[in-house]
UniProtKB/TrEMBL annotation:
This is serine-type D-Ala-D-Ala carboxypeptidase. Belongs to the peptidase S11 family. It catalyses: Preferential cleavage: (Ac)2-L-Lys-D-Ala-|-D-Ala. Also transpeptidation of peptidyl-alanyl moieties that are N-acyl substituents of D-alanine. InterPro entries: Beta-lactam/transpept-like, Peptidase_S11, Peptidase_S11_C, Peptidase_S11_C_sf, Peptidase_S11_N. GO terms for biological process: cell wall organization; peptidoglycan biosynthetic process; proteolysis; regulation of cell shape. Its EC number is 3.4.16.4.
Length: 447
């Protein structure tokens, strides 16, 4: 009976072992959230907000009309050039320079609001006349501001972008790419003031010099507004901007953060609003589930040590050592299929350093590679110089000493002289002994 029970137990253990062995230890391409998503929009991209590394892309370099996601660039230039407390007075051109029926806040000619209030109208309600007013405040005119927008885009690496207005209404010469919009969003991602504005799902503009009523604002990005659509809302979304025109169709920029992973998703020319949000959700889920962060370096982390030499009398003399440390923090977002053992580290430093080098000088670099692709790189600098002797003694020049070149001929000559002297002394001593012996013999004979 006991043998039978034991045999059945063994069978059960074997069956369970086979079942568990079939379960994956790590996420695979077939797992929900980790497989490469299928995107319905004409163009899309997902990037690491820290490094700009592309995690997913679909036609990301194709030019499209951006619609109101243009206003992210408008906000960036305003934040860089104006103070939140600066006041804007709306001109007639700003108020009436937009299409009838387009997004607006109903501002009046001569009405005044602060830059802070205007930015909230711009980013939450996508107000086009407010975009015009901000542009005039920064550059004097909307045309001048559009030139500044394009120049800023180029400076950020957005080479496929041309801006012709601050609001994004359709213009044949007003276009961008999903990749370029991701770069613009990346610049805003770590701007504290921008993120503070994004935290406000609702906002109120108090009465102004022209309007006696309170204006109520509400975030239009559904992934950020739990009151607008609780099913779409994501707590990890921290910023973004919606856009739509009949020609551009639906466009969306979304910034999200989970732990130390920061992502930017851009959707361009989606046929439907629901499709735009579905595509964005797929991209974010893919990024957060299929990727992981490796912390490669910490600033001032000791990488190696090097000797410091002084050159004295043509010789290298070690008088100190120093730590070689990383000059920056470096982390990288990589696929969860990659393990730390798969990453190669290359340290590029000289064999030694020479006296007089600055105490914080850059002396080399360290880089991390996977499949010959550089994942991260940092300069290496000097830190903590430790003197073998005191710095004063080590840096003092040696006292001059007399040195003579001694050739083999001179050595031979000296040896010959020594031998000659010894031989002379030996002969003299021998003669002296012989003389004493003769004298003694002579004395004995007389006696």
């Amino acid at each position: 009976m006991k043998k039978r029970i034991l045999k059945q137990s063994v069978h059960i253990i074997l069956i369970l072992s086979l079942l568990f062995s079939c379960l994956p230890l790590y996420a695979t391409e077939g797992d929900p959230g980790t497989s490469v998503p299928t995107i319905g929009a004409e163009a899309a991209i997902l990037i690491d907000a820290k490094t700009g590394e592309i995690l997913f892309e679909k036609n990301s370099q194709d030019r499209h009309f951006p619609a109101s996601i243009t206003k992210l660039m408008t906000a960036l230039l305003v934040i860089e050039n104006l103070k939140p407390t600066d006041m804007i007075t709306f001109s007639e051109d700003a108020i009436y320079g937009i299409e009838r029926g387009s997004s607006h806040m109903g501002m009046r000619v001569g009405e005044q609001i602060s830059v802070d209030q205007a930015l909230r109208c711009l980013l939450l309600m996508s107000a086009n006349e407010v975009a015009n007013g901000l542009a005039e405040k920064v550059s004097g005119s909307m045309d001048n501001f559009a030139v500044a927008m394009t120049k800023k885009a180029e400076a950020l690496g957005a080479k496929g972008t041309s801006f012709k207005n601050p609001h994004g209404l359709d213009d044949e010469q007003h276009y961008t790419t999903a990749y370029d919009m991701a770069l613009i969003a990346k610049e805003l991602f770590h701007n504290e003031y921008f993120l503070e504005i994004m935290k406000d799902v609702t906002y109120q503009i108090p009465p102004t010099n022209k309007v006696n009523e309170i204006r109520y604002l509400s975030q239009q990005h559904k992934l950020m507004n739990q009151f607008s659509d609780s099913k779409l809302y994501r707590s990890d979304v921290i910023g973004g901007k919606t856009g739509y025109t009949d020609i551009a169709r639906h466009t969306l920029v979304t910034m999200a953060k989970q732990g130390d992973i920061e992502l930017i998703a851009v959707i361009m020319k989606s046929d439907t609003k629901s499709g735009m949000y579905t595509d964005t959700t797929k991209l974010l889920d893919y990024g957060f589930n299929a990727y992981q962060t490796f912390d490669l370096l910490k600033e001032n982390e000791v990488i190696t040590k090097l000797p410091i030499y002084s050159v004295k009398s043509g010789k290298l003399i070690e008088f100190a050592t120093c730590d070689i440390v990383a000059s920056s923090n470096e982390s990288v977002l990589v696929s969860k299929n990659i393990k730390t053992r798969d990453i190669v580290t290359n340290i590029n430093v000289p064999e030694y350093l020479e006296m007089g080098i600055a105490s914080d000088a850059i002396v080399g670099s360290i880089e991390y590679l996977h499949n010959n692709k550089v994942l991260a790189k940092s300069d290496l600098k000097i830190s903590n110089i430790n003197y073998i002797s005191s710095p004063y003694t080590a840096n003092q020049p040696e006292k001059p000493t007399l040195t003579f070149p001694i050739s083999s001929f001179l050595i031979l000559l000296i040896l010959l002289l020594v031998i000659l002297i010894l031989l002379t002394l030996f002969i003299k001593r021998k003669r002296k002994r012989k003389f004493k012996h003769k004298k003694l013999k002579f004395s004995k004979t007389i006696k």
